[in-house]
Design a protein that fits this description.
By secondary structure, the chain is an alpha+beta fold. The longest helix is centred in the first third of the chain and has 42 residues.
């Protein structure tokens, strides 16, 4: 500093503490006493002054910033109210005012607050305000805070005393700038009064102008003679096909309160904005719904649109209406698994709105994607409703097709239930099998013991389960299977052909009766019925109906017929004896003789027939009769000897229950003895043994051989069934 430098040139410089200042120091009593106004020294006073000056500068800056910003914004608001500034000009003006305001805030408020004034700065400002140019105050402030020796203190004492005296009368008002501060406070009060009057008298205009300046590029319409409120006031989203209800509220802003006519709504599809004058847009006339209230409706919206309400010189902000497309199914389908008996793999079928044709009992899995996303999907089949579950981006549901039904797919969307698609499930009936019996539809007359070669073919659309041949009497009754061809597991073959040689065994096929032969086929459908072929009617001839041209064979057959007649007579007497119940022993001999006579005659006629067959050369028929005549009839003759012998009534009474009480014939008695059952098939076995021995067996006419072995056995079989 200048003064310090001069003092340093004219006086020895201050020494550091610890040096010897004995040659420069005055006695302590020679220092002048400090003024009473500076009890703490000169530097603390200037530090306090610096704080007051900093606060005054910050207050001055705040008032400057507030007054300037308020005045600029008020001017812009009034200009926008009067001129309806376009968006570009509003943006430029708002940017300029914001920039100046920020600059004033930084330079007048933030910077002084961040860099407060120091004590030295306050001293320098005091010198300038007092008109001093000797730097006395700033040097004294600096030296007072320095570490000086005793000699330096003695030398600087006069200067410090003078500085303290000069600091007593400093111009505080000038240093703090109180006049400028009051002036800007007055300006700020005037701006506040202007804003109060503007907002109180033109509140709508003020709020509208502030919004337009704060959002210069936004769609904020200026205030006109009326205030319009459109409901909905913001962008909305409606479902496709829904209606949009509109309400416009009109309030007059002019002094007269007159309206500029009825409001109108202008709109355009596929646009993001519509001009305030509604040029090139559709117009929707509104209906009055009360004082200042108008309503209208846009029906069945299909596309996005934009609209705004107009009334006189005022208009509302544009409202964009987004039309959300209805949820729709993407790639709907069924995964069909036929019942297990069908043996078919799973197949994919089209889903709603198509029709799925499946077998009854099929398991169906519905699958579809729904866009846009929905909260829930419900599948209704007939009267049953199934909630779908979401798996990733697809909805699924499992059902079982038991009957034909309509299919309805619904979704929960936008707080309501919407229909997505309608379809149907149709049942593909499992067609019953078909079976064709070769030669069916005709009649055949065959002698007992004859055989028929039967063949049939069965078909089914999915697979056969069982094929069979059944026989029943033509007079009625249920068919009994004679041969069955079952299939082990589903689905079975779709076509099968079988053959069977049916022998008219006299034990089952009684002579003189007609029998129906049918082929039966079943499939795996649990609800299906078996298929039956056309019947083949076979009538078994009676022995009396057999006609033979050879005289020798005819005589043998006549003898066989007599044997059969006498055998039947003996069986009839035996049946009568059984019907009478328990008889006294005295009467048993007469009944035994009555049974023995026809039985012995039957055996004699049988022997005669066998001999005649041998003479005629029909050895096969003769051998067929031998087991019956010599075997079964011989057993009966032993139990019931010819009349006149010592018969022993107790023996007959004792042996009859052991055999068959109802049987009096010899052939029936033989059936009860072990080892005698072979006689029924003995002719066939003998014929087979002759063929294996190399002898060509003679073909025996069935008309001659059948009655001999069939009639007694058939009678016994008939009585066994009736019992």
């Amino acid at each position: 500093m200048t003064t310090s430098a001069a003092s340093a040139d004219s006086h020895p410089g201050p020494r550091k503490q610890g040096s010897d200042p004995s040659s420069f120091l005055l006695p302590p009593s020679s220092f002048p006493a400090p003024p009473s106004s500076f009890p703490g020294g000169l530097r603390p006073r200037f530090a306090a002054l610096a704080r007051r000056m900093t606060a005054a500068a910050v207050a001055h800056g705040v008032l400057y910033w507030l007054a300037g910003s308020a005045a600029a914004v008020l001017a812009l608001c009034l200009a926008d109210n009067l001129l309806r500034l376009p968006a570009a000009l509003r943006l430029a003006a708002a940017a300029l005012v914001a920039g100046l305001s920020l600059h004033a805030l930084w330079t007048r408020v933030v910077r002084p607050a961040r860099t407060p004034l120091s004590a030295e700065g306050a001293a320098r400002a005091a010198e300038a305000a007092s008109g001093r140019g000797d730097n006395l105050l700033i040097n004294a402030c600096q030296l007072e805070g320095a570490e000086l020796g005793e000699g330096a203190r003695v030398l600087l004492a006069p200067a410090l005393a003078e500085a303290r005296s000069a600091a007593v009368g400093l111009p505080q008002a000038r240093l703090l700038g109180l006049r400028a501060l009051a002036l800007w406070a007055l300006v700020a009060l005037c701006c506040a009064a202007g804003w109060t009057a503007y907002a109180g008298r033109f509140g709508d205009h003020a709020a509208n102008a502030l919004r337009r300046l704060a959002l210069p590029l936004a769609d904020v319409p200026p205030v006109g003679s009326v205030a319009l409120v459109l409901e909905p006031s913001g962008d909305v989203t409606v479902a496709e096909g829904d209606d949009l209800a509109l309400t416009v509220r009109v309030r007059a802003l002019s002094v007269s309160g007159e309206q500029a006519g009825a409001p109108v709504v202008v709109w355009a599809e596929g646009r993001r904005d519509v001009p305030p004058d509604g040029a090139g847009c559709e117009r929707l006339e509104l209906q009055a719904a009360g004082p200042g209230v108008w309503r209208g409706r846009l029906a069945s919206l299909r596309r996005d649109l934009c609209l705004r309400a107009l009334c006189g010189d005022a208009w509302t902000a544009a409202v964009r209406v987004a039309v959300a497309p209805m949820p729709r199914l993407l790639a709907p389908g069924w995964r069909s698994q036929a019942p297990d008996y069908a043996g078919q793999p799973a197949v994919d079928l089209p889903g709603p709105p198509g029709t799925a044709t499946v077998l009854p009992g099929s398991r169906l899995t519905f699958s579809a994607e729904v866009v846009p996303a929905v909260g829930s999907v419900v599948l209704t089949v007939g009267s049953a409703t199934t909630a779908c579950t979401r798996s990733r981006d697809r909805w699924q549901a499992d059902i079982t097709a038991t009957s034909a039904a309509t299919v309805l797919v619904q979704a929960g969307w936008a707080g309501r239930t919407v229909e997505l698609a309608r379809g149907a499930i149709a049942l593909d009936q499992d067609r019953p099998p078909t079976v064709e019996l070769e030669g069916a539809g005709g009649n055949r007359v065959l002698p007992p013991g004859a055989s028929i070669e039967l063949s049939f073919t069965a078909r089914d659309d999915l697979g056969l389960r069982r094929c069979a041949l059944t026989v029943r009497e033509a007079s009625g009754g249920r068919g009994e299977p004679v041969r069955s061809w079952p299939v082990a597991a589903a689905p079975g073959p779709k076509e099968a052909g079988h053959k069977h040689r049916l022998v008219l065994d006299p034990a089952r096929f009684q002579p003189g009766r007609a029998y129906v032969v049918e082929a039966v086929a079943e499939d795996w459908n649990p609800a299906g019925a078996p298929a039956v072929s056309r019947p083949l009617v076979v009538r078994v001839q009676n022995p009396d109906e057999i006609q033979v041209s050879d005289a020798a064979v005819r005589a043998a057959i006549d003898s066989l017929r007599r044997a059969i007649a006498r055998e039947r007579e003996a069986e009839g007497i035996s049946d009568n004896l059984l019907a009478q119940g328990e008889l006294p022993p005295a009467r048993l001999g007469a009944h035994r003789d009555a049974i023995a006579r026809p039985q012995n005659d039957a055996r004699a006629a049988g022997r005669e027939s066998r001999q005649r067959f041998e003479k005629a050369g029909d050895l096969h028929a003769a051998r067929a009769l031998e087991p019956v005549v010599e075997g079964e009839m011989g057993l009966v003759e032993r139990d019931a000897p010819a009349p006149g012998r010592d018969q022993g009534a107790p023996g007959l009474h004792r042996r009859a229950p052991a055999r068959h009480p109802r049987r009096g014939g010899g052939a029936r008695a033989a059936e009860d003895r072990p080892g005698r059952q072979r006689s029924r098939r003995q002719p066939a076995l003998d014929h087979h043994r002759g063929a294996r021995a190399g002898r060509r067996p003679r073909r025996v006419p069935a008309q001659a051989a059948a009655p001999a072995r069939a009639q007694p056995l058939a009678a016994r079989r008939r009585r066994a069934r009736s019992r």
